[in-house]
Structure formats: structure tokens, C-alpha cells
TrEMBL record, chain A:
It is a multi-pass membrane protein. Residues 15-76 form the V-ATPase proteolipid subunit C-like domain. The keyword Transmembrane applies. Belongs to the ATPase C chain family. It is found in: Cell membrane; Membrane. This is ATP synthase subunit c. It comes from the Bacteria. The gene is atpE. The record marks 63 as: Reversibly protonated during proton transport. One of its GO terms (molecular function) is lipid binding. Key component of the F(0) channel; it plays a direct role in translocation across the membrane. A homomeric c-ring of between 10-14 subunits forms the central stalk rotor element with the F(1) delta and epsilon subunits. It comes from Roseiconus nitratireducens.
Automatic annotation (TrEMBL), chain B:
PANTHER family: ATP SYNTHASE SUBUNIT B', CHLOROPLASTIC. One of its GO terms (molecular function) is proton-transporting ATPase activity, rotational mechanism. Residues 38-94 form a coiled coil. This is ATP synthase F0 subunit B. The chain crosses the membrane at residues 12-30. CDD domains: ATP-synt_Fo_b. Keywords: Coiled coil, Membrane, Transmembrane, Transmembrane helix. It comes from the Bacteria. It comes from Roseiconus nitratireducens.
């Protein structure tokens, strides 16, 4: 039980850290993408459709890292292979 | 089989089926319709372009016709202008000729008027001259002029000799016995028929009326004669410009 | 409250084959999509110009143009696949907003299946377009040493696609479920609206990414 408790506490802490750092990185990256996209749109309004498409794809790419972190955090919390019982 | 694997396989197959079904029932007819629309639009566009080309051609034709019409109008106007100018020149010439004729006519009339005036002037001048001659003669007058005039009448009568009767002698101044005798002697045979009348206005001298003619040897007759000859001379000069010219040159 | 995050609840079993809730949901979505598509197709074929046929024309034309922009030429097959990805994922995501419906794309199995389909479509499209040798050559293109990196890149992007879609949809659904459980009725409505946006956006991104990958494979010979 003691081991299980340690594992559970460690999993929760690392899930929180994972989520926090992943969110920070993704937020910074997405903000830069958004700024660059605004700049490009201001410079070339004619290319709006192409820029918007690239913007969304890039946002999805960057956000996927945050999503990965979220999935990892969820795995740590609910599907941890080292805990005795898996959720669900 | 685990539920996850089953789901995985099912989803893959499901998606393939969905893609095939949508491709067959949805995308193919819609793409055909789009292609039809596009081809129809292209056909319409080509037809529209053809029509546009045709319209442009017609526009050009109309433009050309318009330009030709403009040229024609300009040429016609030039022609009309030329004709009008010619006509104007002709009319002007005619008018000038008419004016020349009128001018000549009026010159002529003026000349005639001048002639008649000149004639009248000559008449007046001659009358005045005759009057002055008569007055001169009367100034000169005296017995000697009277004698000379009677003598002259006698001479004329003597030349005629025969057929003088009836003789009528007119005089203003009284005739002396000698003069009466001389006249009777000059009349010869007709002396018996001679009558002596005293009339006014003859001045000195006598006027003898015979069957053969008139012997006018009086100052009035001389002045009349002078007037006549002066008028005749002046009229001759007027009717003969050369003479007139000579006179004016002189 | 029982959380089904990484597995699918089994509804019933047909012999040895388990029927999961995800399978049912996606099957229903598929049937609805096919029916709608068939109706639209027949409307368009009949030449009517009503709302449905205009919508169909707009959808197909916009996806054809999108693929043309990305690939560089008109590719009806690729456009069909990309549009089907979009329609299926968007349909599943929107269906997930219905009460009591677990979205099919919120299951890792579904998104993995879609991503694996993209993974296999890439070499198929590349070989179809460039020939077997023409396609395989590009693995060694800058340097033969980079060949493992190519392979890893393809594998990792497949994983990324599947996990991205799964994570977005599942997290949205999970947040809504947690809010309902903690705060109560109608509180998670803004989150559900955000989920609508995210669902359509992820479907669009999945379609675009698959098109980009397939298009890149088709034009490897042109580099």
C-alpha cells in the first residue's frame, strides 16, 4: 500500500507538472504563431485564405504537443500501468 | 477479440465503406454536375465572346460608315461651298456689269443733261451776247449807222432787181427823204407798191419784206443773227468733241 | 461515475465479436452521411437548385479547390478522401454533442484507424503517382543516412494525428462531463460551444494534414 501511495502521489504530481509545462510551451508557441499570422495578414491581405489555412495547421501542430501532455497526464492519472487497478 | 482491436478494424472498414459510398453517391454526380456547369459556362462564354467579337466588328463597321459619311459630308459641303462661291462670283460679275451699264447710262444721261444745260447756257449766252451786240450797235448808233444800214439794205435790194413786189419797209427810226428815195430807187419797179411802216424794237436800220425774201438790215436783226450764229457755233463744238478738246487744250 | 477514457464500453457481443458503443455511433454517423450524400447527389443529378444541392456543390467544389491548392493539380480521389475525412470526423464530433452520445472520434481506436489509413494512403498515393522506385527513392533523397528519420517522421506524424484528434475531442468531452458532474445542468454550455468549434476545426485540420501528407508523397518526384 505504501508503494501504491507513493506511485499515486508521484503520478499526480508529474501529471500536474506535465500539464503545466506543456500548456506553457504550447501557449508561447501559439502566441508567436498568431502574431506572425497577423503580421502576414496585414502585409498580404490577398493571401488571407492561404495564410489562414497555414495558421490553423500550425496551431494544430503546436497544440498537439499540449494535447500530448494532456494525454500523458491522463494516462498517468487513469491508466497508470504501475497502479494495481486501472481506471475504467 | 479485444474490443479495441475490433473497434479499430471496424472503424477502418467503416471509413473505407463511407469513402466509397460517398464517392459513388455523392462526389461523382456532384462533380459531373460541376463539370457540366463549367462546360456550359465555357460554351456560353465562347458564344458571348463570339457575339462580342461580332458586335465589335459591327461597331467598327458603323464607325467606318460614320467616318465615310463624315468625309462625304465634308466633300459635299466643299462642293456646295465652291458652287456657291462661283455663283456669288457670277452674280457679282453680273451686278458689276449691270452697275457698269448703269454707270455708263448715268454717265450718258449726265452727259446729255450737261449737253442740254450747255445748250441752254449757250442759248442764254448767245441771247446775252446778241443783246449786248444790239446795245453796242445802238450805242454806236447815230445817223451814220442808220445810213449804213439803209445803204446795205439798198445794196441787197439792187442785187435782186426783179419780182420784188409787194415790198414792205419797216423801220423804227424816222427815214429821211433821201433814204426813202434811195430805197425806192433800189426797189426799182416795185417802188410803187412799197409801203412804209413804223414799228418798235428794230433799232437803227430797216427791214424790207419782199416776195423774194427778207432783207433785215436793222440792229435787232443783226443781233438776232449774231445770236443764231453763236448758238450754232457752240452746238457744233459740243457735238464735235474733237473740236471741244482742241478748245479745252487751247 | 465510470470514466471510459482509453477503452471502449462494450454494448454486446455477436459471438466472439464485441460490439462497442463507438462502433455503433460511427456506424450511425456513416449511415446518416451516406443517406444525406445520396439525397444530395440525386438532387444535384436531377438538376434542381435548392439548398441541399447548392450545399453539395459548394462542399465538393471547395474541397476540390483546397486539394488543388495543396497538391498543385486537380486530384479527385485525394479530394474525395480528404472530404470524407472531414465529413466523418465533423459528423462524429457534432454527434458527440448530443446528450448521452459518446463521440466516435473520442476513442483512440477510431482516431488510430483513421491515422493508420492516412499512413497507408501516403505510400499508395506516392507509388501510384511516381512509380514504386520513384517513390522509394525519396527515402534516400538528401542522404541515405536519413532514411530512418523519414520512417520515424511518418510514424510519429501518424501517432500525432491520432493522438491530436483523440485528445482534443476526448478532453472536450471529459471537461463537459466533469462540469456536468461538479456544477450541474447548463453550466458547461460555453464549453460545449467551444467543443463545436474545436470539433469542426480538428476535422478540418485532419483533412488538411492528410491532404498535405498525400500530396507531398505524390509530388516527391518533382523536387
Amino acid at each position: 500500500m505504501n508503494d501504491q501511495l507513493i506511485i499515486a502521489v508521484t503520478a499526480m504530481a508529474s501529471a500536474a507538472v506535465t500539464m503545466a509545462l506543456g500548456a506553457i510551451g504550447a501557449a508561447l508557441g501559439e502566441s508567436r504563431i498568431g502574431a506572425a499570422a497577423m503580421d502576414a495578414l496585414a502585409r498580404q491581405p490577398d493571401e488571407a485564405s492561404s495564410i489562414t489555412r497555414t495558421l490553423f495547421v500550425s496551431l494544430a501542430m503546436v497544440e498537439s504537443t499540449a494535447i500530448f501532455c494532456l494525454v500523458i497526464a491522463l494516462i498517468l492519472l487513469f491508466a497508470n500501468p504501475f497502479t494495481a487497478t486501472t481506471a475504467g | 477479440m479485444s474490443p479495441i482491436l475490433t473497434t479499430f478494424l471496424f472503424e477502418a472498414a467503416n471509413f473505407l465503406v463511407l469513402a466509397a459510398a460517398l464517392g459513388w453517391f455523392f462526389f461523382r454526380p456532384v462533380r459531373n454536375a460541376i463539370a457540366e456547369y463549367r462546360s456550359k459556362i465555357e460554351t456560353d462564354q465562347r458564344a458571348a465572346e463570339t457575339k462580342l467579337e461580332e458586335a465589335r466588328k459591327r461597331h467598327d463597321q458603323v464607325d467606318q460608315a460614320y467616318a465615310r459619311l463624315h468625309e462625304d459630308i465634308a466633300r459635299e459641303r466643299e462642293k456646295q461651298l465652291e458652287a456657291a462661291r462661283e455663283q456669288a462670283g457670277k452674280i457679282l460679275d453680273e451686278a458689276r456689269q449691270v452697275a457698269d451699264r448703269e454707270l455708263k447710262l448715268s454717265h450718258h444721261q449726265a452727259a446729255q443733261i450737261t449737253n442740254s444745260q450747255r445748250d441752254r447756257l449757250a442759248e442764254v449766252a448767245a441771247t446775252a451776247a446778241a443783246a449786248s451786240v444790239g446795245r453796242l450797235l445802238e450805242e454806236l448808233s447815230g445817223e451814220r449807222l442808220h445810213d449804213a444800214l439803209v445803204e446795205s439794205a439798198c445794196r441787197q435790194l439792187r442785187q435782186w432787181q426783179d419780182g420784188l413786189a409787194p415790198v414792205s419797209v419797216e423801220h423804227s427810226l424816222p427815214l429821211s427823204e433821201t433814204q426813202v428815195e434811195a430805197l425806192k430807187e433800189a426797189a426799182g419797179k416795185a417802188a410803187e407798191t412799197a409801203e412804209f411802216h413804223t414799228v418798235d424794237g428794230l433799232g437803227a436800220g430797216v427791214r424790207v419784206l419782199t416776195a423774194q425774201g427778207l432783207v433785215d438790215a436793222s440792229t435787232a436783226g443783226i443781233s438776232t443773227f449774231a445770236r443764231r450764229s453763236l448758238v450754232k457755233e457752240m452746238q457744233d463744238r459740243a457735238n464735235n468733241p474733237a473740236v471741244l478738246q482742241d478748245v479745252s487744250d487751247a | 461515475m465510470e470514466l471510459h477514457i482509453f477503452d471502449d464500453p462494450v454494448l454486446m457481443r455477436l459471438g466472439p465479436v464485441p460490439i462497442t458503443e463507438t462502433m455503433v455511433t460511427s456506424a450511425i454517423v456513416t449511415v446518416v452521411l451516406i443517406g444525406l450524400g445520396a439525397v444530395m447527389g440525386s438532387r444535384v443529378r436531377s438538376g434542381r437548385s435548392d439548398l441541399l444541392s447548392t450545399l453539395a456543390l459548394m462542399t465538393v467544389e471547395s474541397f476540390d479547390r483546397l486539394v488543388e491548392d495543396i497538391v498543385g493539380r486537380r486530384q479527385t480521389v485525394v479530394a474525395t478522401i480528404a472530404a470524407t475525412f472531414f465529413l466523418f470526423i465533423a459528423g462524429c464530433n457534432l454527434a458527440g454533442q448530443l446528450p448521452g452520445v459518446h463521440p466516435a472520434t473520442g476513442s483512440l481506436a477510431t482516431t488510430s484507424a483513421l491515422a493508420v489509413l492516412v499512413f497507408f494512403s501516403v505510400p499508395i498515393a506516392g507509388i501510384w503517382s511516381n512509380g514504386l522506385w520513384g517513390y522509394l527513392k525519396h527515402y534516400f533523397r538528401p542522404n541515405p543516412l536519413l532514411m530512418p528519420l523519414h520512417v520515424i517522421s511518418e510514424l510519429s506524424r501518424t501517432l500525432a494525428m491520432s493522438v491530436r484528434l483523440f485528445g482534443n475531442i476526448m478532453s472536450g468531452h471529459l471537461v463537459v462531463g466533469l462540469l456536468v458532474a461538479l456544477a450541474g445542468f447548463l453550466v458547461p454550455t460555453p464549453m460545449m460551444a467551444l467543443d463545436l468549434l474545436i470539433g469542426l476545426l480538428q476535422a478540418y485540420i485532419f483533412a488538411i494534414l492528410s491532404t498535405v501528407y498525400i500530396g507531398a508523397a505524390m509530388s516527391v518526384g518533382e523536387e
